[in-house]
Amino acid sequence: NIFFRPYTKKMWGLDPKDLEVSIGARLPVRTNKDDRYFTDTFQALPDKGYEELFKNMLNHKNIEVELNSVFEKSMEKNFNHCFLCMPIDSYFDFRFGNLPYRSLIFEEQASNTNQEAPQINFTDYSKYTRKTQWNLLPNCSKSKNDFNTITYEIPCDISENPGEYYYPVQTKDSKSLYRKYVSLANQLDNITFCGRTGLFRYIDMVPSVTMHLDIAQKYLRNNS
Questions:
Q1: What is the pTM (predicted TM-score) of this model?
Q2: Which has the closest alpha carbon to 110: 81, 145, 141?
Q3: In 135-196, at which residue ranges do the beta strands (DSSP E only) sit?
């Protein structure tokens, strides 16, 4: 009630008892004084930032990037197979109803003081869940003036921030609804759904990379 319930309730818009157990299982419980959120042996950020990382990944003769392009099913005829990182319920025109998602609204402020840490969580019943001071993160360039950018995060329902999908809300009912869409997806040979919205899963960075490499390798094995 002091720490977990207030944060979880405003983050997900539900009382914790209504969420899938896996949501709460993500929160680390410590019996020591290790104050890190993650305890992985190796923790790092890309040396030149994520922008350069993705530029290098996409710098290949067989890869074309088209931005600001809305997906249409008519595009499928141009490809042997489509890997779609889009909401699976949207692809099927919400036939069984909308899957629930939480979104975030970002509020930026300028400050001439430094936080105690790069990121601070609000475990009370205020509207914010956390705030981040970006220039305290590794590899961040120094500010050109005396002010630091502080970004506050306000969780909200996807209906309040359309198109900005962040967190699938996993409950018994939403998982049952998702399985109905999976049954439709399994009837399509040329479509593979990926990502948080395609798989309706909250996925951290490392598991996400591993999972999608496995999806790609499985496709290659079955189509080589």
A1: 0.86
A2: 145
A3: 148-157, 167-168, 191-193
The DSSP 8-state label assigned to residue 223 in this structure reads T
Mean of pLDDT values over 96-121: 94
Q: How confident is the model at residue 37 (pLDDT cuts 50, 70, 90)?
A: confident
Q: Are 9 and 16 in contact (CB under 8 A)?
A: yes
Nearest to 78 by CA among 90, 88, 69: 69
- Report pLDDT digits (tens) over 154-185: 999 999 999 999 999 999 999 999 999 999 99
Cβ-proximal residues to 5 (8 Å cutoff; 6+ apart), any chain: 15, 16
Buried/exposed code over 3-33 (b: 16+ C-beta within 10 A; e: otherwise): eeebbbbbbbebebeebeeebeeeeeeeeee
Task: State the maximum Cα–Cα separation within the chain, in Å, rounded to a whole number.
Answer: 58
Q: Which two tokens stand for residue 5?
A: 């319930």
Per-residue pLDDT tens digits for 65-88: 999 988 999 999 999 999 999 999
Q: Which residues, listed in sequence order, are joined to residue 120 by a DSSP beta bridge?
A: 131
Q: Which two tokens stand for residue 2?
A: 């002091």
